[in-house]
Amino acid sequence: GPGALGYCPVVWVAAPARYEAEENMKVLFASLGIVFFALGAVGVFLPIIPTTPFLLLASVCFAKSSDRFNNWFLSTRLYKKYLESFVKERSMTAKTKACILSFASAMLLIAFFMMSNIPGRVAIAAVIVFKYYYFFFRIKTIKPEEKEKLPQAESPEIHESTFAEE
What we know:
With 166 residues, this protein is mainly alpha-helical. Helix content is 71%, strand content 4%. Helix 1 (9-45) packs antiparallel against helix 2 (52-65), helix 2 runs antiparallel to helix 3 and helix 6 packs antiparallel against helix 7. The chain is globular, with a radius of gyration of 21 Å. It starts with 8 loop residues before the first helix and ends in a 17-residue tail after the last helix. The relative contact order is 0.09.
């Protein structure tokens, strides 16, 4: 029977609707992951399209979509070549950093110049400054030959300076 609290039909309707919404989001993330992965793959052959930013977006999307897609993505050669060293060691080659920074900066500068309000421009400028700070001071720059020698299962080192002045 309904018990002491009474009958609440909303519970019976809300649970399937929430499940359906979650499934739709997983499909959306999987679809976006495939699109970003394809763009990253094209970027390998066309230097005008950056590879790493699209693969980073694909990684996020696949992680949010399903374990199956995420595990597949983590096993691809593109992931291993372009992202694995960053994920495991928080390090990138100078070329990878330059590609990411140039693409992201171009997108942010387009938005900056198209925006007419001052607070929006200040926010975009702050994002640009933070991005460069993070890439220069928080992500280690390694040589391409060092990237090949990185251990496969090591976790990133955490230094005391990471928590200083916070």
